[in-house]
Amino acid sequence: MADEVSPGGALGRLLQELKNERIKRHMSIDDMSRFVNVSSSHIEKLEAGDFSFLPPLYVFSIVKKYAGEVGIGDEQLLALCRAELHTPAIPALASSAASRGDEHRVADDARRSPAHRSRIYLFIALLVLLSFAALLYYFPF
Known about the structure:
The chain is an all-alpha fold and 141 residues long. The chain folds into two domains: 76 residues, 434 Repressor (Amino-terminal Domain); 46 residues. 70% of the residues lie in helices and 0% in strands. Helix 4 runs antiparallel to helix 5. 14% of the residues are buried.
C-alpha cells in the first residue's frame, strides 16, 4: 500500500492542484467535502499525501471523483496516478459485458429499471385481486 506520494509524481501534482483549486475557491475542507460528496477526513488525508487509510483502489477512486467534480486532470494524468498507486484498470461493467458476449447481463440490468418494477408490482396486485375475487365467487359468505 502506498503511504506517501513523492511531491514530483503525477499523483502529488494532481493532489496539489486539487488543494490549490479548493483554496482558490475559498472553500474549507468541509465545504469541499460537501461539494464533491467525499468524507472531509479523506480529503484532508489525500491533500496531506497520506494514503494509509484505504486500499489503493479506493484511494484512486476518491481522487478520480474529487478531480472529476472539480474539473481538474485528464485521462492521461489519471492513468499516471493509477500507475503510481499500482491499481488495475477496471473497464465499465456494461461495455465489458457486451464486449464479452454477455448480452443477457446487459438485458438483466434493463429489466431492473423502475418502470419494469412498477409493471411487476401492478401485475402482482392484479393477481392478488383476481385471486380474492375467485375466492369470493367460489366461497361466498
